[in-house]
Amino acid sequence: MENWESYVRKVVPYVPGEQPQAERMIKLNTNENPYPPAPGVQRALAGFNPDTLRLYPEPTCKVLVDAIASYYGLGSDQVFVGVGSDDVLAMIFLTFFNSGKPVFFPDITYSFYDVWADMLRIPYETKALDDAFEIRVEDYYEENGGVIFPNPNAPTGILMPLDKIEDIIAHNRDVIVVVDEAYIDFGGVSALPLIEKYDNLLIVQTFSKSRSMAGMRIGYAMGNAKLIRYINDVKYSFNSYTMNRTALALGVEAIRDRAYFEETRKKIIETREWTKKELRALGFTFGDSMSNFIFASHERVPATELFEALRREHIYVRHFTKERINNYLRISIGTREEMETFIRFLKEYLKEA
User: Fold this and answer.
1) Which pLDDT tens digit goes with each residue over 159-218?
2) Which of 281-305 are b and which e, b meaning 16 or more Cβ less than 10 Å from the residue's Cβ?
3) Distance linking the first and last C-alpha atoms of the chain
4) Angle ∠(121,126,127) on CA atoms, nearest 5
């Protein structure tokens, strides 16, 4: 080995979901929204002046920060935006998890958390979910360097009620608690009101799921002004121009159209509930997902076999090999037509299995 290689920061990277390029496929593997963005997004894109791309974007992202703050009834100093919620969460890890004490998060959760911790040399402890894949709040009472968890959880889709979230926050007043709400719009109650009561709470959301903007990469954090200022200080020390001009313009239109958001959200929820009923009839078991996906296991047929059979038909779902969940498939909710095709295939396949 050359001497320089001994100083390389080596990490096991996060593995994103497969992005197949088949012309005819049903893509249910990365929790994208099956519907297009709000109509105003298309109009803004059509009217976008490409000459402005020679200029740097406005570094504070004011136009988008103001639009998000207005939507949620917050002050603009309570909102931070970044390049997808992954960027926002990475900035939070970098900013707040520096005590040398372990950060706590569930053992079955968003698999980027341990990647960031390893990359940034942050100690961490994973807390085992119970047999129903639910968080045990008492596991988070011990001394720690910070707490982070998704709600609903990923990849399980299980929602934690607000009183349990507040219990965790109340037991961790001397560290930052992050509630990652990437999927909250599909059936849960946001913990956002708690930021007025707890100055150590950050809520992180994204445009990628309920606002159909995964390809644009827009995420945001909400909390008290001091926390947001600290994250911005780190951001400006890392990369001043994080959001491009197109993302800022289109993001504003996406957040403004509340009626379209409610319409597509309702469609996804209705299709999810229909799919649950169909999957149960076929012998699948799963928790009561409140996200835009279902995390399911079949009573007879191994998940690996189903995953490969679906893939051969150009129907893509997500399969994880991690212990405890390697016999589950995570099935994103597509359009009603896509889910009907998916269910038809399963019915035929399981007849022969």
Assistant:
1) 999 999 999 999 999 999 999 999 999 998 999 999 999 999 999 999 999 999 999 999
2) eeebebbebbbbbbbbbbeebebee
3) 51
4) 155
